[in-house]
């Protein structure tokens, strides 16, 4: 029976044997289909490309457009096809992947399929949908591709980072600043340990709760701004429809009526001129907040200025929304055909403009009533009907903002206390000072949306994510702490603990996740095997941690991936000649090298790989390292060490029972092995190698020779 069976799915959340990025690895069994490549299945290729015509964009191994379709025609197997279909379903759902691989295993018909996974749950769903789609194409059965894509798109919208948060994370990635998603929402950690910062959409760990409370109280905000010389419209807090009318008479018509504590422009009624309009607006505004403000109406367009760290990052202008009657359609129909049909409008987070829904928009209903219409009205052909005076049509005007206007907006953000603020102001001409046109700042908002600046209706997008990253991290700061990763067959736990001890002696608050447990500042907080993703992440999210050491077993690399994207020091202790992991289809030491090399692949260009010179499989990894290599070995006569020193590079070895540090021909005595308890208690050569590996790692971390000596002479595994 022809079938594709998914045997196992693993989420590799960090660097792994496939790629540096998070990946989903699926093991599949194609059974009899091993004997039926794509060019032997009648009609299969036509059905597949008919359902997914965009597969033509996949370059595949040919390296050119149409490469994958050519592979289909030449004949390829379901594992490879499943990889590409999964990626394409993710692309069509709005979560681009890009990376994918399919490889056969030692078991006939069993393949490993790996695809980029920006969100594990979405990629899992895409994989299962792809499996069903491929099988339907093989069996010539119907398959609802649009429905599957719609389901995946809904998952992307509800589960993936929102566009505002995503643009900040992408900007961090450009700066090589690592990131962690801390919740299912938009709370993200940028950087590691003590160097980390946190964001929640456009709020940061510098956004104070007091400032947020002030910004949500519109009356208090106005009072503070006015006291500091920021132009604001005159206004009063009112407690009844009658008071609203009295306040309007005092201020002078027309006026604005709005909630004192609502956000995103909800319940804001502008250009009101009659008592009936004002009293109706009061009642509707009160539904959106706890109290109501009446203030002077300022003619002109609303503008949103994004202030980040005291500087103008972007500015957008909103313009009125209107429809043109055709003489046969109702206003509600005109709204749907002329406004909501805009592809930029929608309910998904990626849509920069909102749908106009009459049953949810009291402001629109009031505006229509002021013109003598309802949503069911059919105006005469050619008549222009105003729908919203500020219809969230965002036009980029960043380059037009007058310096004094930018300064006023920056001052408003500082007065409220927000490090990132959306400052709303009304002015006829943003390129002129506010004082010349009686313009004013009407609101200061915490957690402003960024989408209007990323996808303006007109004008060029602004790099607001980059502005926020530059605010959080000074130039040259990548948010990283020293990270040491230790991998290999034997000795990982001992080496990890000894390195952590030396870092501790050098004055660092050290986090350690290893086979013996989880440690913070040498205090064991959890016993048992903690050489895993969850424990390692606990280290990196700990804001006290100044340096981290992680033991990475082959099992962890294969089943979870590394918790960090790059490290300062990567140590490989050894690879045993008989090493294998048949449960992962890893049959021998040669294949194990592909696993262990992950630790070397992630060493920073400014970092160091510490490699065992006596183990050829390990020593050969030197060419894979982007940074420096320090070899260690008991015997200084090892050819690998000798050649390394000839190139004036670093090595650690034993000569006459003394541990030596060498750079080229220059040798420095570190300690006699008889003074090292770990060696003295066990004369086995592997313990000497463990100490040498830890010494080399400490040297790579620029720990002083005296402290390295003290570390190995005082270290106790108990």
Automatic annotation (TrEMBL):
Molecular function, one GO term: cyanophycin synthetase activity (L-aspartate-adding)
Entries under Gene3D superfamilies matching the protein: ATP-grasp fold, B domain (3.30.470.20), Mur-like, catalytic domain (3.40.1190.10)
EC nos: 6.3.2.29
Assigned keywords, A-Z: ATP-binding, Ligase, Nucleotide-binding
Domain of life: Bacteria
Pfam families per UniProt: CPSase_L_D2, Cyanophycin_syn, Mur_ligase_M
InterPro entries named in the record: ATP-grasp, CPAse_ATP-bd, Cya_phycin_syn, Cyanophycin_syn_N, Mur-like_cat_sf, Mur_ligase_cen
Record bears the keyword Kinase: no
PROSITE patterns referenced in this protein's UniProt entry, alphabetically: ATP_GRASP (PS50975)
Protein name (record): Cyanophycin synthase
Source organism (scientific name): Collimonas arenae
Lineage, top ranks: Bacteria, Pseudomonadati, Pseudomonadota, Betaproteobacteria, Burkholderiales
């Amino acid at each position: 029976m022809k079938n594709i069976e998914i045997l196992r799915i693993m989420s590799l959340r960090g660097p792994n044997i496939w790629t540096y990025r998070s990946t989903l690895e699926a093991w599949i069994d194609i059974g009899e289909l091993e004997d039926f490549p794509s060019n032997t299945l009648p009609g299969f290729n036509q059905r597949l490309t008919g359902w997914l015509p965009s597969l033509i964009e996949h370059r595949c191994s040919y390296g050119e457009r149409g490469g994958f379709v050519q592979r289909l025609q030449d004949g390829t197997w379901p594992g490879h096809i499943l990889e590409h279909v999964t990626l394409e379903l993710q692309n069509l759902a709005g979560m681009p992947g890009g990376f994918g691989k399919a490889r056969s295993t030692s078991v006939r018909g069993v393949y490993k399929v790996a695809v980029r996974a920006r969100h594990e749950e979405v990629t899992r769903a895409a994989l299962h949908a792809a499996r069903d789609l491929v099988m339907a194409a093989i069996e010539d059965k119907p398959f609802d591709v649009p429905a599957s894509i719609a389901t995946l798109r809904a998952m992307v919208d509800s589960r993936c980072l929102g566009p505002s948060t995503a643009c900040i994370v992408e900007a961090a990635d450009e700066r090589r600043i690592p990131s962690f998603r801390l919740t299912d929402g938009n709370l993200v950690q940028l950087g590691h340990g003590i160097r980390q910062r946190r964001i929640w959409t456009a709020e940061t760990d510098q956004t104070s709760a007091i400032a947020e409370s002030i910004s949500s109280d519109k009356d208090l905000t106005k009072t503070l701004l006015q006291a500091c010389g920021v132009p604001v419209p005159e206004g009063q807090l009112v407690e009844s429809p009658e008071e609203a009318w009295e306040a309007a008479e005092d201020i002078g018509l027309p006026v604005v009526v709005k909630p004192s504590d609502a956000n995103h422009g909800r319940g804001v009624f502008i250009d009101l001129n009659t008592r009936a309009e004002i009293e109706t607006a009061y009642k509707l505004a009160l539904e959106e907040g706890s109290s109501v403000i009446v203030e002077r109406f300022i003619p002109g367009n609303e503008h949103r200025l994004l202030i980040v760290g005291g500087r103008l990052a972007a500015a957008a202008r909103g313009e009125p929304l209107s429809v043109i009657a055709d003489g046969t359609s109702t206003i509600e129909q005109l709204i749907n055909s002329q406004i909501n049909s805009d592809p930029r409008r929608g309910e998904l987070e990626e849509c920069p403009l909102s749908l106009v829904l009459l049953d949810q928009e009291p402001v629109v209903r009031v505006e229509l009533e002021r013109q003598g219409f309802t949503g069911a009205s059919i105006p005469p052909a050619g008549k222009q009907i105003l729908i919203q005076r500020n219809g969230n049509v965002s036009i980029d005007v960043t380059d037009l903002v007058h310096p004094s206007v930018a300064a006023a907006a920056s001052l408003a953000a500082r007065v409220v206390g927000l490090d990132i603020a959306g400052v709303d102001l009304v002015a006829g001409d943003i390129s002129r000072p506010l004082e010349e046109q009686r313009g004013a700042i009407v609101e200061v908002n915490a957690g402003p949306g960024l989408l209007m600046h990323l996808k303006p209706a007109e004008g060029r997008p602004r790099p607001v994510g980059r502005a926020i990253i530059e605010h959080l991290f000074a130039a040259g700061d990548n948010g990283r702490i020293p990270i040491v990763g230790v991998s290999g067959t034997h000795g990982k736990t001992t080496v990890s603990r000894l390195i952590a001890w030396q870092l501790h002696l050098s004055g660092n608050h050290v986090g350690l996740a290893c086979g013996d447990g989880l440690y913070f500042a040498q205090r064991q907080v959890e016993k048992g095997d903690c050489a895993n993703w969850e424990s390692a992440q606990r280290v990196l999210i700990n804001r006290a941690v100044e340096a981290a050491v992680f033991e990475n077993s082959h099992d962890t690399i294969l089943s979870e991936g590394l918790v960090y994207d790059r490290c300062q020091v990567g140590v490989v202790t050894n690879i045993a000649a008989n090493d294998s992991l048949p449960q992962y289809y890893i049959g021998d030491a040669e294949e194990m090298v592909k696993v262990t090399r992950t630790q070397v692949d992630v060493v920073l260009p400014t970092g160091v790989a510490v490699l065992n010179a006596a183990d050829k499989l390990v020593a050969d990894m030197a060419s894979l390292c982007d940074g420096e290599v320090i070899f260690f070995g008991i015997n200084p006569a090892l050819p690998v060490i000798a050649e390394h020193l000839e190139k004036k590079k670093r090595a650690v070895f034993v000569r006459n029972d003394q541990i030596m540090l060498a750079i080229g021909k220059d040798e420095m005595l570190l300690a006699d092995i008889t003074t090292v308890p770990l060696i003295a208690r066990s004369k086995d050569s592997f313990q000497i190698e463990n100490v040498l590996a830890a010494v080399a790692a400490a040297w790579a971390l620029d720990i002083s020779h005296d402290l390295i000596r003290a570390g190995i002479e005082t270290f106790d595994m108990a």
